[in-house]
C-alpha cells in the first residue's frame, strides 16, 4: 500500500505550492490569496523507488464553528486521520501565530508522526525567525522553499523514513503469488457489497440501501475453478463536497490504495442513475493507475428499453477512453449475467501480464510502418527501428528510432490498435513510449 502524507497549516502558507512540487503537477490552484483551497486534494508522488499519496488541504482552523471554515476544518481533520505522516507547514516570513499554536496542539493530541516545516525560508535558514517556531513543541523546524524546490527532497525522505516502509522490490515479489487481486470500485450504493456477497454465496459484507455503508476497503479470499482471488470491496467514492461524514473518513484513500494494489478493477455502474461525472472520475483514476479494468452495469433488470438505450449511448460518449474494457449488464441481487464476468476478469488479467517477445514486436512495428509511414514533420520523418516490452500491468512497449518526438498521437493510436489485435490485449491499458537515439555526429 502506498503511504499517505497530509499537508496541513493555516491559510496561505504554501501548502498547494508544496503539493504541486511533490506531485510534479499543477493540479492545485496556487495564488497569493488566503483560503483558496477548500476541499481535500489527492495526488501521487514518487521519491526514488517509493511511491506515495499526498493530500493537500484547505487552511486549518481547528475551532472554526460555522460556515465554510467549519467544513474546511472537517476536511483537514479527515485528511489527518487518513494520513500515515503529517507535514505541518508554517510561514517563516509571516511569523508564529495563535492559529499555529492551535494546530500544533491538535497534532500533539493525536500523537501521529508529524514534521514541522518552515516554508518561504529561502535565504533564512539560520535566521532568528526560525527559532520562534520551536515553542510549538513539535521538535525540529525544517526550512524549505516550496516555490523554488529548496529542501523539498530531503523533507520527503525524512517523512517516508518515519514509516519504516518495506522495500518495493520485496513487495513486488509478494504480489506474484498466483493470487489475482480484484478490486470492486464505484460510487456509493451501486451494489458492490451485494455483488461480492452473491459471488461468495453468503452475507459476508454489510449490504444496505444507504450510501456509505462500507467504510473501509475489505479484503476477502475466494477461489473459483482452481484460481485464487482476493476480492476487495472498496468504500464508494463520492463527490468531494459530499465527503464530510465521519463514516467516510477513510473511504477515498483506501479506495485509491485498493485500486493501485489490484491487478484488475471491476468498475460497477448503476443502470438506474446512468453515467455520472463521478463515474468518469473513478474510471479516469483507474486508467491513470494503469490497472486492467472490466465494466459492469448493475441493476440492469430495473430499467426499461428506452433507459437502456440512453445508458448505452451515455457510456459510449462519457467513458469512450475505456473502449478497450469489456462490458457486462448484470443484476447482482438476482444473479443475472454474473458468470461471464469471470471470463472477462481472467482475460483482462492475462492481457495485463502478457509477455510480448521482442522479435514479434519488431516485426509488427516494421509491418505497420510499411503499411502506413508516420507523417513528416518539417525536414524530418520519424524512423521507427525496433520495439521491445518495457513493463507489465499495464503492458509497456518501448519503440526506438530517430526523430520520434515528431510521431503524432494519431499514429501512436494506429500502432496501439495493431499491437492490441496481435496480442489480444482486451481490458488493459497499453502504454507506448518513444525513445529517440542520440546522433553521435550531432556536435561535430
TrEMBL record:
<feature type="binding site">
    <location>
        <begin position="119"/>
        <end position="122"/>
    </location>
    <ligand>
        <name>GTP 1</name>
    </ligand>
</feature>
<dbReference type="InterPro" id="IPR015946">
    <property type="entry name" value="KH_dom-like_a/b"/>
</dbReference>
<dbReference type="InterPro" id="IPR005225">
    <property type="entry name" value="Small_GTP-bd"/>
</dbReference>
<feature type="binding site">
    <location>
        <begin position="9"/>
        <end position="16"/>
    </location>
    <ligand>
        <name>GTP 1</name>
    </ligand>
</feature>
<dbReference type="GO" id="GO:0042254">
    <property type="term" value="P:ribosome biogenesis"/>
</dbReference>
<dbReference type="InterPro" id="IPR016484">
    <property type="entry name" value="GTPase_Der"/>
</dbReference>
<dbReference type="Pfam" id="PF01926">
    <property type="entry name" value="MMR_HSR1"/>
</dbReference>
<dbReference type="InterPro" id="IPR032859">
    <property type="entry name" value="KH_dom-like"/>
</dbReference>
<dbReference type="InterPro" id="IPR027417">
    <property type="entry name" value="P-loop_NTPase"/>
</dbReference>
<keyword id="KW-0677">Repeat</keyword>
<dbReference type="GO" id="GO:0005525">
    <property type="term" value="F:GTP binding"/>
</dbReference>
<protein>
    <recommendedName>
        <fullName>GTPase Der</fullName>
    </recommendedName>
</protein>
<keyword id="KW-0342">GTP-binding</keyword>
<dbReference type="InterPro" id="IPR006073">
    <property type="entry name" value="GTP-bd"/>
</dbReference>
<feature type="binding site">
    <location>
        <begin position="233"/>
        <end position="237"/>
    </location>
    <ligand>
        <name>GTP 2</name>
    </ligand>
</feature>
<comment type="function">
    <text>GTPase that plays an essential role in the late steps of ribosome biogenesis.</text>
</comment>
<keyword id="KW-0547">Nucleotide-binding</keyword>
<comment type="subunit">
    <text>Associates with the 50S ribosomal subunit.</text>
</comment>
<comment type="similarity">
    <text>Belongs to the TRAFAC class TrmE-Era-EngA-EngB-Septin-like GTPase superfamily. EngA (Der) GTPase family.</text>
</comment>
<feature type="domain" description="EngA-type G">
    <location>
        <begin position="180"/>
        <end position="353"/>
    </location>
</feature>
<feature type="binding site">
    <location>
        <begin position="56"/>
        <end position="60"/>
    </location>
    <ligand>
        <name>GTP 1</name>
    </ligand>
</feature>
<keyword id="KW-0690">Ribosome biogenesis</keyword>
<dbReference type="Pfam" id="PF14714">
    <property type="entry name" value="KH_dom-like"/>
</dbReference>
<feature type="binding site">
    <location>
        <begin position="298"/>
        <end position="301"/>
    </location>
    <ligand>
        <name>GTP 2</name>
    </ligand>
</feature>
<feature type="binding site">
    <location>
        <begin position="186"/>
        <end position="193"/>
    </location>
    <ligand>
        <name>GTP 2</name>
    </ligand>
</feature>
<dbReference type="GO" id="GO:0043022">
    <property type="term" value="F:ribosome binding"/>
</dbReference>
<dbReference type="InterPro" id="IPR031166">
    <property type="entry name" value="G_ENGA"/>
</dbReference>
<feature type="domain" description="EngA-type G">
    <location>
        <begin position="3"/>
        <end position="167"/>
    </location>
</feature>
